[in-house]
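All the exercises in this workshop are built on plain-text protein records. The record below serves as our worked example for the rest of this section.
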Amino acid sequence: MLISNLALHCIASFFRGQESMIPQNVESRLPFVLLMLNHRQYHSAIFHRKDYQDSFSNNAYSSSSLRFGVAVGQNFFFGKAEKFSVGLLELPFRVGVPFNIPLELQDEFGHATQLTNDIKPILEASGLTLQYEELTAGANCIIKGVTAKGCVNSCQGKNFNLKITLPGLKEDTQIFKIRLQPGPPYQLKVKPDSEILKIENGTAFPFQVEVLDESGNITAQPKLIVHCKFLGASNLPVYSVDCSNAGTNILTGPVIHVLNIKKDQMLKARIEIPSCKDVPPVEKMIKLLPSSHVARLQVLSMNGQKAIQIKHQDEINWIAGDIMHNLIFQMYDEGEREIHITSAMAEKIKVNWTPKINREQLMQGLLPDVKVPTSVKDVRYCLISYLDDHVSLESAFTIRPLPDEPKHIKCKLEGSNTVQLGEDLQGEIDVMITDQYGNQVQTVTSACTGYLGVAGPGLDKSNLQITWQESTFTMRVKGIRFKPCALGSKELCFAWREFSDFLRVNLTAGSPAKLQIMDWPELEKPVAVINGRELLKPLVVQLCDEWGNPSPEPNVKISLTKSSNLKIVPSNHQHRTDDNGRANLGVISIHAPRGEHTLQLRALYNKIALECPVITFNVLPDPDKPIRLNVKYDKNASFPAGGTFPDFMVSVLSEDDNIIRNISPARISMKMWKGQGSGNRIPTDVTFSCSKIKDDKEDGFFYFRDKVIPERVGTYSIQFTFAMDKTNMLNSDQIIVEVVPNDPVRLLPDSLPATPAVSNVRAITSRTLVKDLHLHIMDEYNNHTGADLIGRVIAKIKSPNEDDTEIPQFQGKISTIEFPFDRGSAEIVSNLVLAENSPGRDSTEYILVFEPDLPALKKPLEPYRLSFMFYNDFKKQQQMATLTRERDQLSQSIGVYRNWFDTTNQLVNEMRCQVKEAETREIHLRNELRKHQIELPQTNTLQFVDSLIKQKMLDQDGLMKQPRRTCTLPNYPKGNQDILGKIAHLAQIEDNEAAKVISWHLASDMDCVVTLTTEAARSIFDETQGRQQVLPLDSIYKTLPDWNRPLPHLRNGKICFRPVGNPVFARDLLTFPDNVEHCQTVFGMLLGDTIIIDNLDAANHYRKEVVKITPCPTLLTREGDRIRSNGKFGGLQNKAPPMDKLRGMVFGAPVPKLYSAFTGQIDLLQQYRAAVVKLDDVNKDLNLHLRSLNTPEMLKKKQELAEQEKSLMLIEQKLGMTPSDKVSELLLQPVILDMPDTPIPPKRMRKETVKKLYR
């Protein structure tokens, strides 16, 4: 067949981009084209020769044009099928699962074709049975519904050669290889194969299951789960196993356990695949046999020949404290067959009441004995357990103890065990009967109360009640009370038949009925107390019952009533009792007038007033408390100005009106001011210190001698003060003195008149010397005096030059004029005028003299002189009068300036003296501190000194807080200054051993009160009704041992023998805090020449040597032995007891020496600090004052003074007067100059300066 190139071209257009698929060989193109035409849809195709020739001009084919047509869906031109091939197969192939086999038929040319006739294919495979449903002929030839069955031996399948034969074809057979896998589950195969299976109860049964397809092949697929359900009993397990991987597995699970099985029991096992409903289940019958393992424990108790079974959780009552014997132990399986206990089984048996078990006894079925608890409250839980690989069994029982026979009685107190005296016990006592272990016996009845008895010391049985308590099987005792007896713990005895028990109750005081004062002497007698002093012991009151027992009732208010004039410090009058029923008012001090005063304490309890005995205080005046100052002086003496006061003798009086001695004179001062002071604030102008006490005067008096009387006349107040402490001062009564003028000395006017300048012209005013001049008699200090003098004043004119005879005369040509003088004054009312044309030298200075003529005066007075200038010319007189006034003014101003500068210079000198003294004091104290090894830095001295003082004070306080031996014997109140105190308090001893032996040696005298006078001793004797021994010093003969006498082995400065044992006079070991001379008298009499030595051997040796030359005194050893002066030693009478046996009646230890060293160092440091501060202050004052002298104001004043002095000299030269006379006159009367910017010198310095100027 020839095809046109056009046809090929048309076909190629369908394969654009795939031209490689078109065959290049011409012979092959036509079948290709036909094949494409068979599969493609062409409506028409016309091949022209021309085109063919154009396309294949070079080919061998050439023919005329061929016209053909292809119709879609119609097979035209198919040849006869000659052969076939197998198409693509769909995997997998499983047994019994249909699958299709596609066939591709070809003609002889290999072209696809179709079957034209009815052919039945033949399928064959070795070992397989093959079937198919049909063969579809046509374009798609398929053998449908092919099933293969046969053995494949594995879940992975097996390879088979499948042979397909199509009879009638030239090549009718095709063989291809397939892998056939097992088919879907079809049936279950369960092993064992028997229908009835036997297993023991409590075991698991394994099944071998296989999942088979319809050909019997083991098959597997996902989620292939095989279940086994057991039927025939409750709570049976369900087995399941997964066969998804291998199709076979062991089906097993939990053990099959049926409770309470006693015989064989049939069960049904249903095995199925829940996911494969088409697979029929397999059922097996299971015969469940009772287990042969231990299934039950049984415990028996042998009671004689009878065995009593003890079931699980049984409660057994048994006698307390007894032992349970013969406990039998048995084990059974599920078939109630007893199991023989082997050694291995015995190892698995445990009991909880003992750690050790006899295994051989267990193999015989015997359990260990059980100890029953002794208390009925202790229940014993007994557990027997068996544990092996199959079962865990327990058998438990409880043993409850029962009380034994009565053996004791037991008392129990409900409530408080405290009973107040006189009242019933608030609590109730239950008496129970118990066995030997204390378990209450509950078999008794109410009849047992008749056998119960109660006894005890001081028990009051009048209200005793015994009752039976049915609910508790006890006997109750009420009404326990006691008669008045000693308080404290009381033991009550309760007896029942032959049994007894004891119970302790605490007997306390009854309800408060009265108040008592604790630890005080007999209150029937007045208690001696010094006014203002504290009592020797605190005031403590105790609530007591009616029998005097302390009653511990807290918060009871205690009030205090007292005499109206009795003051108590502290003043809190209300207190409350503490938990012990006590109220401590503390140590109070009594302030009251001398005499007896009462004090009473009261309490209010349950609206009942309780009172304590009245305390009567015999208030004695305090001999050491200053209350007033006694001043003695000559009250008839006069007080002339500038003179000296009479001697003032001041003493400090105590409350008993006796003089207080041993007072530092620095604490007494004398103050004086002008006028009369009123109120608390007293002005003080002058303060005088005490003069040195003269040896011939009595002790206790302070003298103020040679004190200067003020220079100005007037009323003055004097008061003496005593510094009781740093803040409190004791003032005497004010002494009012009138300072009167001193002896008349001079005649002076009220005010100094100006220097007159006169002439002898007609005008009276030019000839007037003075007018309205008042002259008075003055003493040395310019006080008006001579008020009682009567006489005359003679005025006359004198010339400074005695040879000058030309003297001016008064008007009337007289030389003298007399004026009356009355009551100390002369008044020149009329003008004193010169005579007209009076003689006199021109420009000459004359003196107007006023001479007093007083017959009553023995000593003439100094006249008053007034200088004046005389001129003959009126004009010149007027000029000179002007110069004279200027001279007077300058003289007055210069006098004030000089007075001021003199005072200032004196102040500077005094300040420099103070600086010098302060420097000397500082250097001296610094050297003293160096002697105490205290070096001071050059800088920050005050800070260093302050810190050092603080440290020294801390060290001193720490030293004082250290324990120190003290005398605890109460001292006698010093109500009188004549009472020195008890001997135990008069001396102190540093060495402990010496203090012990000397205190013991003077034991009989330690309590003796030493007085200065027999009167004071008698007063103490009367106050104590003779119970207190006293020793008046005025009754002691004064020939006592010389305290400076050497020891007996020293004679005439030579050592007679070498002693051993460090002998020393006992008196030399004593130190006396106060009244040294009196104490030396006392202890010189008591100790004499008693010697202290180390030990008895040294004392005997010393005595043996001393008696060779002189009598030997009593010897005391530091070990406590005594050899009397007669040589006797040994025995209890001559051996000192230990320190604690002396009961505090021992001499105290003095303040440590280091304390005194600290005190001295602190005092020096404080003095040095004050000296440094003072040196700094005076230096500052001096520098400040020196700077003030160089200020512009002061320099200006100095310049003004120089200029005024120069002017004055010029004026005096012009006047022809004596230089500076007027200045001296002006200085006689003080003139105040207002200079506010100038430093004012101290008042004392100003007075001294004025005083010197007056003189």
